[in-house]
Design a protein that fits this description.
By secondary structure, the chain is α+β, with helices and mostly antiparallel strands. The chain has six helices and six strands. Strands 1-2-3-4-6-5 form a six-stranded antiparallel sheet, with helices on one face. Strand 5 and strand 6 form a beta hairpin. Helix 3 crosses helix 5. The longest helix has 24 residues. The protein is elongated, with a radius of gyration of 20 Å. The mean pLDDT is 85.
Length: 219
Amino acid sequence: MKKSVYSLVLMDDVVDAIDAMACRRGTSRSNLINQILAEHVSLATPEKRMKDIFASLEELMDETFQIQSQPTYSMLSIRSPLRYKYKPTIRYGLELYPSPKESLGKLKVSFRTQNAQLIQSLNAFFQIWVALETHYLDRYFPKGILCELSEGRFIRELMRPPGGEELTSEDLGNSIASYIQMLDAMIKTYFAGLDDPNTAAVQVENLYRQYLQDKFIVI
């Protein structure tokens, strides 16, 4: 949305209250005033859109996931425990773009651990995951899916759904929630079968195919 500079005459007490609220929300005075006015006239701003997407996402997350709000409208943190001897926590960091084009935002997945064995197993899983998405989503995203894999960390761009149709904030929130739930289930399936990694990899692929058929998660 295009922005221009305007002059407003406001009471000092109003400005003080706006500044305090803007500080709490991690935004600027002008941006907060813009949001308040847009909401008052029922105009959807990028901030409102992101807020609605996160709200739809949170409604679908069950007690397995611990959602932590961030001091910005564009980010959300989600944690999920993993049954493993080191009792690690899977961390999902979701960031949405205010003005999305081909990508809606990005998802960062990580474990906070220094254990070499755990990091090695996590890297092995994400290598399998990248191969699965590259193979099964190629017809939807012929340009490929942007992702990055490093030691104990995976970053994935969340693509606009194929077809170019404009989806509602609720639809996008549901799609992102379903993707995170699917990914979480795959990680736990793989780690539950680490005694036989090859069999675990086959189980992950079979489960992935089932999810695509049943829920058609493409994002």
